[in-house]
Structure formats: structure tokens, C-alpha cells
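User: I'm putting together notes for a lab meeting next week and I want to include a structural view of one of the chains we've been expressing. I don't have a solved structure, so I'd like a prediction I can at least talk through. The sequence is below, exactly as it appears in our construct file.
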Amino acid sequence: MTFISDNFLLQSEAAVRLYHEFAAAQPIIDYHCHLPVKEIAEDRRFENLTQIWLAGDHYKWRAMRAAGVSEEYITGSASDWEKFQAWAETVPKTLRNPLYHWTHLELKRPFGIADKLLSPSTAKSIWDECNAKLQTPEFSARGIMRQMNVKLVCTTDDPIDSLEYHQEIRRQTADGNRGAAGLRPPVDDGSFDIQVLPTFRPDKAMQCAEPTGTGQVTYRSVKNYYEYLERLADVARNPILSFDDLLDALNKRHDYFHENGCRLSDHGFGRLSYSMSDDISQVESIFLRLRDINVIKETEVNILQAAGLRDIAIMNYNKQWTMQLHIGAMRNNNIRFFHKLGPDTGFDSMIDGNIAESLSNFFAALDSTNKLPKTIVYNLNPAWNDMLATLIGNFQDGKTPGKMQFGSGWWFLDQKDGMENQLKCLSNHGLLSLFVGMLTDSRSFLSYTRHEYFRRILCNLLGEDMKTGLIPMDYEMVGKMVGNICYYNAKNYFGFEL
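Assistant: Thanks for the context. Below is the predicted structure for the 498-residue chain, given as C-alpha cells.
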């Protein structure tokens, strides 16, 4: 029996029709991901399934650790086959975890394996079949993107990034893939027409201090913060001796990103503590004190970060960019493994506490000067869903359809329950019809089935409403909304030229 059938997750006739007639064939706009753009530019071919599927996937790593798998078989020195074996042994233990769905969706697309489940008994045959396909052009980085009907992706990039690989992809496309002098030779037949655009992620420019560990409410500057400022100053050709210099440098890089097709910024934090000071001299004094004596108060850290975030938001407004806010992650909780493996290795979780007033004050400060850009808020703590969905409604401007967006289920919430709750919450407090839809938020070229997963869940939810009479049994009207959420809303909202 096939587990991932054509009608997987579709529990009514209406859901089946909505998905197959209005959702399945829609192209993909992946407006937020962490794909390594170098691998797209060079059209990487992966040697085996572990390299494309397990490397860097902290979702799988967390499950393997929970199953008692030694770190040697996760991030350690074990061979790629041994690591895949360990994952195959873990998969049957992930029933009711979204990883079980994701795993078999990704085996079906793009690998075409739908007649077997991954387990220790099937590991070798799946390994051999997938590895053979990975050696063909259809399963290179670009080949997979084509197979999944991707039209545009936005990667996540630091202000100091050169964007040379984005430029190379654009040159290859514009020049019929002749390549550029001094860079890599042509890697494609000239038919690659997927846009790959950068996203401005300035978090490191604002991560200026950390707790002293003394129990006092003072913060010490991060050891490598000044090294980062030196690199930023170098690429911006703008010495950074003051906070105003820092903003000037970021503005220059913002301009550079815009010239290279960027239309979004992205900002991640646990709780936004918006302590804004209109006294520029106070902000400068705090920055200079941090630079000179390395210790400032927690409230002063908040003032610096708020001032930086506000100015970048204004830059976004002036260029008609969209601002993305990822809120609610408590990162690097396991200090021992953080020192051993570094960040983004599977030791993050949800944060709690109050953010409503600070976030409202931040939006209000921008709105009061008519400088609030289009904004998407992604939430990691489901306890905040209704609060955030109602809060952003205060700042819709009556001119831009869906200007303030309650973003798709993110990270720990991009699973069936999380997506359904986000869709229901948005429906209750806003306009689902204007939602810009799903994204991968992933480092893996195999993760595009998350768009399929979302589309099936969306169609099942709407199909159930049609079946029970909560919305009209009007396939033209509801189907058009499905198509808009899957593709057209994002295309229009971000202003992408496709």
C-alpha cells in the first residue's frame, strides 16, 4: 500500500478537487530560505543521500539524539552510509512527528519512491536508488529546483556578503550561460531561468552584547562584534567609529543589496524589547561606552538594537521592501554542544514572556511618521498566535492589500497542527484570501515538498468547510483563493517580476 498517495491529507471530495485542480500545478515562490547560493551557482551534484538530506538538517539531528543515536553518527566522523543507516533506524520511531511525513514526501518527490517506507530493512535499496539518481543532471541543485517547479527563491544573506554568486547566476542567465571572466565556467545548458535573489539579514550588526554572567543587569560586548564591524566597515568603505557610522555603513550595504535585486530584509530575535530613544546623543553615548569600556546595561542594549531596527525599517519603506520579523526563538540552550558544534545545530526552542507592548510600540513609532514598511511577522510560540494576528490588524493602512502579514507556521510550527492553527487564526482575525503562503525556511534542496504539504493542508481545511457548509460550494471562488495563496499573492505582494 502506498503511504503518500495522490490524495494524501485530502479527506473530502472538495479537498481533492481544490488541491488537484487549483494548487498542485502552481509554481513555487520560495521567498525565505537558507539555501547556499554557491551551490546553485555551481549547480552542485551531491555524492550521496546523506550529503543532500542529512547534512545541516537539525530537525533530523534532534530526532536522532532523542532516539539515542551517538553524535558520531549525526555530526561526527562516521561515514555517510553509517549516518544514513542511523537515520533509517530512527525514522520508524518518528510516527506522528512531522519528520515521518516530510521524509516520505521527499522520497516521493523528486526521487519517485512511493512504494516503500524508510526503515533498516529498506535503507540499502533506497540508498542505492537515490544515489544513482543523484548522479544525473535532473538531480543536481538546479535540476531539483526545476523538477519542483520553482520560479524564484530569496536566500538569506549578511550585509557583508559580496553577493558574487547571485551576480554569477544572473550573468549566466543573461549571457546564455557563457559565464563571466575570472569566475567559474558554465555549469548549465543555458536554460536555468529561476531567479535567485538575496535577502538582507543584519542581525550580526545588532548583536552587540551578551550577559556578563555576574547576575547584574549589565552586558559585555561580544568578543567578535568589533571584528564584524571592521569587516562591515571594509565592505561598505565606511569607517565605523560611532553609531551613526554604523547606520551609514548598513545603509550603503542596503543600497548595494537593492542594486542586486534584494526586496526583503529579515530579522530574528527572541523577545523584541523596544526601548526607543529619540535622543541621538544618548544612543551615541551608549555605543561609545560599549566600544570603550565594553560594558553597558541591558536597557541600553535594547535602545541600540531598537534604534538600528527602526532605521533599517525606514530604509525598507523608502525602497518599498518587505520587512520580515522572526520572533520567539531561544537559541543555543545547550552550552556544551554550542561550544562543540556552534549555532544552528539543533539546540534551540521556543521562548515565552511578553512581547505585545514592545512590538506594538515599534509598529506605532514607524506608523506615526508614515514609515512602516510591508511586514511579515512569523511566530514560534503558538500561545502568541491570536495576540500577533490581532496586533498586526492595528497597522493595516487601507491602501496596501494585506500590508501586515501573519506569517506561515515557522520552524517548530511548520507541521500539520501548526499550519492549521496559523490558517485558522489568520482566518478569524484577518483575511486568509490575501495570505502570501508558504516558504521552506530550509537549507535543503529537497525541502520544496513543504510547499506541497502546506497546499494539501490548506485545501483539506477549505474542503472541509465546503463540505460542512461553512463556506460556499463554489469551486471557482474558493479555487481562485487557493491559487492566489499558493502563488499569485506572493508574486504581487513582493512585486516580483516573473
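A couple of points you could mention at the meeting. Residues 316 and 373 are 6 Å apart (CA to CA). The chain has 20 helices and twelve strands.

User: Perfect, that's what I needed.
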